[in-house]
Amino acid sequence: MKIRIKIMLGFLILAVMLAVAGAVSVYELRSVGTSVQGLLDDNYRSIEAAKKMIEALERQDSGMLLLLSGKWKQGRQTIQAADEKFTDALETAKNNLTIPDEKSYVERIHKAYQKYRLLWDQPIAGTSREGNLGWYFEDAHKAFNLVKLEVQELMAINDSAMYKTASSLKTRAHRAVMPGIVAILSALVLSLLFSYFVNIYIVNPILSIISAIETFLKTNEPVHLKIATNDEINDLAASVSNLVAMVQRNRNDSRR
Amino acid sequence: MRPQIIIRYMGFVLLFNALFLLISAIVSAVNGDTARLPLLYSAGVTALIGVFPIIYVPPVENIHNDEGLAIVVAGWVMSALIGTLPYIMWGGPFTFTNAWFESVSGFTTTGSSILSSIEALPLGLLLWRSLTHWIGGIGIVVFMLAVAPWTGQAAMVLYKNEISSLAVENFRYRTRKTLQILLVVYLGLTAAETLCLLLAGMGFFDALTHSFATIATGGFSPRNNSVAYFNSPLIESIIIVFMILSGIHFALIFLTLTQNIKRIWKSAIVRYYLVAMAVGVAVVSLNIWGDVYADFWQALRAAAFQVVSLGTSTGFATADTNVWPGFSKLILILFSLQCACAGSTSGGIKVDRVVVFGKSFLSQFRKMKHSRAVVALKLDGTVMDPAIVEAGIVYIVLYLCVVCISALMLTFMGIDLMTAFSGSVAAMGNVGPGFGMVSSLSNFAMLPDAAKWTLTLVMLLGRLEIFGLLMFLFYRMIR
Q1: pTM over 0.80
Q2: B14 CA to chain A: closest CA distance, Å?
Q3: DSSP-assigned beta bridge partners for residue B289
Q4: Which of A21, B43, B195, B328 could form a disulfide with B21 if both were Cys (CB 3.0 to 4.6 A apart)?
Q5: If you write DSSP's letter for every residue of B162-190 in order, what string do you get?
Q6: Quick one: DSSP state of residue B385?
Q7: Using one digit for the tens of pLDDT, what is the confidence trace for B30-55?
Q8: Is ipTM > 0.90 here?
């Protein structure tokens, strides 16, 4: 193999290695990006919706207490506003089912909320329930706690899924970095080998050719060059040997 | 010594490893698991680094003995180093130290692991883990020589440096023929065991990886509970038979199968190997019967598997030997020291040397009785060369010295005596499990990093039969 091809192949190997390392890193980094987006789209949206639901529930509970205390107008307004907010948040959760079984959690919230809704949907002011704290603690507050618990469970499964995704991001980031590190270390090794081979198979033979020519010029001894490789250096050594032999013949002829 | 020649042969070793990495990557890609990119990238990098010296260094007809030794030792170290690539790139529990430990343990067919949950690994990585056993089983360079069409003086020098000195004496064929015998027996046993395990109801992947580990006398199982996972007397029996076969000199198996079935019984080494194993099983069965197992057949089943597993340096497990009585533990440690026959894939001191030691002891005894008698040491009717006897005894002494030094170093690191000693015996004999913290159903994860590095050095010393690595490290001094 000729030196030109050897050098070209050497650099080609380095280039391929770095290109592949770059490609693998880019692929893994894109996966990390997609995972981060997925994390925000899938889990964070559900957690936000669950937080809004809890906030709306708390306001509905306050509205219920206002109704019990006779402030029916203020109470109704508070409850209506919170109901809209809760329904919106529940709709968001329904449209963002990304975890296995998440649908059943959302359905349980829906059912529990319907039961709770029935309690304040019926008139309270001017009925036996107005000012009836016993009814509030026995029925209304229990139903409120049940809905809250279901919403908290939805939040917990999304929290857990988010933690899992975040943990896998760490592994993905590791896998994105490692090809680069391996490529750098391999490139270092190959560079050292390359300089060693250039020294052994290119520089040393040239030095021995120079040394042989100098010896010939001083002593007129024939040149014996042994080159291990079958490349331009070998051709050069053969040409030098021929040239030296010719010069030697001419010298001998001129002496006669 | 010509370093460029050694580097050229390293290129072939790397290409050979790259081929197996590629196979694992393909399996991983077909399975769609997370190891496909780490395996594929490792295969690519390994192939590229391997091709580099082959392009630059021209082929040579002859290599010197010291170069052959350097190629073999560097081949093992380089393979173990390349073997870490898919592990560290995949991540998880694999720090560089852990990946190095797992890789050295795989290639040297030790079978010790740092993994707490093996089943959490993707399929492709599990296959690579098993393949390291299979590549290392008959020796990386021997495997390469057997597969590649290399002949001549270079192949002979490499073969003599790679294979156990005792096994070289026993092979009476030319290098090429010997390599062919090794390959045929190795592939034949692997295929036969895979088939038997499939018929016994194991899945293909489990059957293949367990066969790789059995025939290489390695011990890596893709299951957290090793062979105990299957809880099948039939599967255990099949593995026992193949573990015993893998511990017999491969040339003897070849001759028995191709020439004379009775030939195997004519070998004093094999007779001792089988009788010792049978006595070991009987004694351990009786010792654990009652204390650990109420039923005698259960005791016999567990004892047979564990004695054969450690006595052949395989290291599979079907029982937690840590809870067995001290006597049984000691018997298992003795089997871990001795292991099986030379010329097989087994590690340890080897039965051949133990027999030679025993005969030497008896001849000394006779000499003491009859001081003027000329006592010749014979094995299978052939008078043994005193140099081989001496080398065998020196090896045993050196072997025990390495075990003691390793145990000393581990205890210095704060590890308890049982773990340190049994771990060192297991690493030196390429057995796998020890006792204490590193028992049959446990792992080496909790050991400090320094202990893991010490044990990997001991594994390499054991696999290269001490002299190989020592001569490589102290070549100039010895010369």
Answers
A1: yes
A2: 13
A3: B293
A4: B43
A5: HS-HHHHHH--S-HHHHHHHHHHHHHHHH
A6: P
A7: 999 989 989 999 999 999 999 989 88
A8: no
